Amino acid sequence: MIGQRIKEIRNNNNLTQEELAEGIISRTYLSLIEKGTVQPSTNVLVKLSKRLNCTVNDFMTEVSHFKYNNFEILREIGHYELKVTNEDYDAIKYFIEKEYEHIEDIPLPDSGRIYLIYANYYYYLKDIKKARLNIDKALHNLSTVAINQHYINAVMLKAKLLVDDGKVDQAVDVLESALYMLTKFDELNLSDLKLRYALVKCYIIFKQYYTASRIIKDIDSISNRLGIDYKPEAIEKLKVFLLIKNEHYQEAIDVVEDTTDSELKLLKAYGLYQLDKVREAGQLYKTLVDFNVSSITIPELKDLYEELTERLGGL
């Protein structure tokens, strides 16, 4: 009970384990105290109480089961969601230490947002097992209310994990299901664009280029209706790539025109080659000396680059 009480007071003071333990004991030893694995000495309790601005007797009172003010919790959740958006993942470990998901009577949608923060953090760390565990909890809890942006973000991460596992068909099912629920309310928004964009990438993996092209057209139409210029550079590359894969080579070349982007240059060179304009293709290919296969935005471009290298590399 002492360990739980120390943890509660530490959280109320907004201190991490490292901050409380510094100069007194190791963080690992404090963690063991809070878990109830070890019993701290009186000397340690006195030092901890001074840092926490309390008395040793305060450690003996009953734990209040983390009944925090709801506004405070939501403010914390929103703060760390912003950290995820800004890819400031180092800060997330302090949020995890607070174990807000164990707060008594916490609403399921709020705990779902907490698990989504955890899932993003573990995905960043490449701890895929924990990422999967937390994203499933997030989706379960977020699905208890009307579909919202947090649920969509959870769906997107779930689909990404499935694609990484080679389960692209399951990723499509998850995305299509969320898109169906979203459109059922006949309310177009940014979430609609995010889901369709993710579906395009899945259908490209399936080599279903016509379907992917159709969805790109839907994205254009919805973007115009909403007045949103959604991922313009990425969408342009996908459009040209799909024109190439659907053998509309001249249209792809016309779309690209003059560009300094190496991926678009590659696509134009490939289109020129397919139209038997070998000299022009070769000249454009020679400008790709710094083309970095490891940083391409569309993985399938690697195959096009290797094919062009084999056919034009000796020119």
UniProtKB/TrEMBL annotation:
CDD domains per the UniProt record, alphabetical: HTH_XRE (cd00093)
* SMART domains on file: HTH_XRE (SM00530)
Residues covered by the HTH cro/C1-type domain: 6-59
- The record lists the membrane-crossing segments as none
Provide the GO MF annotations for this entry.
Answer: DNA binding
Show the PROSITE patterns listed in the entry.
HTH_CROC1
Name used for this protein in its record = Anaerobic benzoate catabolism transcriptional regulator
- Organism, per UniProt? Jeotgalicoccus meleagridis
